[in-house]
Amino acid sequence: MVDNETKEAEGQNVEDPMTKAIGAIGKWQIWICFVVFLVKFPVAWHQMSIIFLAPPVNFTCSSNDEFDNKCLSNCTKYKYDHSVFGETIISQWDLICEKAWLKNLTQTIFMLGILVGNMLFGHLSDRFGRRIPFLGAVFLQLIAGVTTAYSVNWYMFTSLRFLLAVATGGTMVTSFVLIMELIGTKYRDTIGILYQIPFNLGHLTLPLFGYFLRNWNTFQLAISLPSILFLSYYFLLPESPRWLMTAGRVEDTLTILKRIAKRNGRPTENIDSSIQKMAVDMNSVHEKASFFALFQTPRLRVRTLAICFNWFVCGFCFFGVSQYIGHVSGNIFSNVTISASILVPGTIISIYANQLLGRKITLMSSNCVTGLSCLLLAVVPTSTASHLTLGCIGLWGMSISFATVYLYAGELFPTVVRNSGVGLSSTVARVGSMVAPFVATLAHTSAWLPPLAFGVVPLIGSCLCIILPDTRGKKLPDTLEEGEA
To answer: How many Cβ atoms are within 10 Å of 305's Cβ, its own excluded?
Structure first.
């Protein structure tokens, strides 16, 4: 038994033929990473844009002179305070009083769209490759984003935002998996976490759009038009050689690997023999696996459920805590900037934490940080300083958790169902983000309920990490058999 375990451990750390052919990382991979990372900026802009599309606004009945924010049954027309923002979706379509819930519904439907996009494009890219679904998602994101800016009513606005969210979810899942399949084991954890930095920077730059563009339609147009640049990806991005290999397209795999090797300055003489041997050794080059394969085998089923719950934790707590501490008074532009700035160092710290501690310990620790800080929110005095500080600590913990679960899921699932696995995981996170606003608003009835929920859930996720293997430094599994092992 000892000999078998030793052999298995050695086999898991052996560099696979593809990595040997093109290198763990080189000039070509760095260029592709830079190109793909840019896609995360619009992801952050669209996902967090509701902050400036529907910011808090003071209002009063048109017959009054002072803004008292009172809903009157006999008032037929309201006027709004435009001292900070010009026109918002709230003032444009009177989303106040009995229609105030439509603002939250808009964001819930957007998160539902990301959920659909994660699942839809995750399935499409496992079936038809990473490249074409990715390009389709980018094109849909551009069209839906621009047309949203010209919405004439709330129904049109929300419908187009749903399509925009489907596209955004598609770019998220396909771009991440493509990156993970091009980087060698040695640098996979670093690149997988650096992939989150553009999202943080996108979040950080969002207040600039909001500050200089105070009308919702010009703001929406400005965060959508940069996607025009991504149409050039039709010429820049290749198909994933790992997907081509699992799809049985060995010749196409060889063509791309030789091109990458040349650009990285590596020899190409032995690529043919090593990849042909890899194709034979896999025994299932033509293996096709559906979404349900994630639940067919005992170990993969349990691991899928555990990692999915931890994605739920991230979506639930990140957006929930953000909304919960959003009630803290202050300048909206500085508040968003401060909360976004906290995420960048957390993501950078997670690089070193994952290298030193591994995936399991890092995820367990960051979940505990968020859980304990949120539980303290329920017992400390409700002063602005204490709540803002504890809330920021909770978000800081989630920034580490979010970066880690992305990396964890990308390494845990086999190539044949990796997009489906990451797509399912991200989908569960969207369920958490859809539930979060309703939990956060419970503070109006029971002040202790939201902190309790946001505290207990990540602690449960931390406990479930115990059944997950640590994937640090391990070879990416290609087949279902490797994934089970």
So the answer is: 14
pLDDT at 11: 40
CB 390 within 8 A of CB 78: no
Number of other residues whose CB lies within 10 A of the CB of residue 447 = 12
**DSSP class per residue in 77-141:** -EEE--SS-S--HHHHHT-SGGGTHHHHHHHHHHHHHHHHHHHHHHHHHHHH-SHHHHHHHHHHH
- As given in the structure block, the two tokens for residue 292 are 């349900």
Distance CA 141, CA 130 (A): 17
d(CA 140, CA 227): 10
Burial of 62 (0-12, 13-18, 19+ CB in 10 A): exposed
**3-state class of 61 per DSSP?**
strand
pLDDT at 440: 75
- Measured CA to CA, the distance from residue 165 to residue 155 in angstroms comes to 15
Closest residue by Cα to residue 121 from 169, 182, 164, 75: 169
Where b means 16+ CB within 10 Å and e means fewer, 10-36 reads: eeeeeeebbbbbbbebbebbeebbebb
Whose tokens are 């390009």? That residue is 135
**Spatial contact of 165 and 117, defined as CB atoms under 8 Å apart:** yes
Cβ–Cβ under 8 Å, residues 79 and 66 = no
pTM of the model: 0.81
- Dihedral pair phi/psi, residue 58, rounded to 5°: -85, 145
**Under-70 pLDDT residues of the chain:** 1-15, 281-291, 325-330, 382-384, 441, 443-445, 473, 476, 478-485
Looking up tokens 């929930």 gives 320
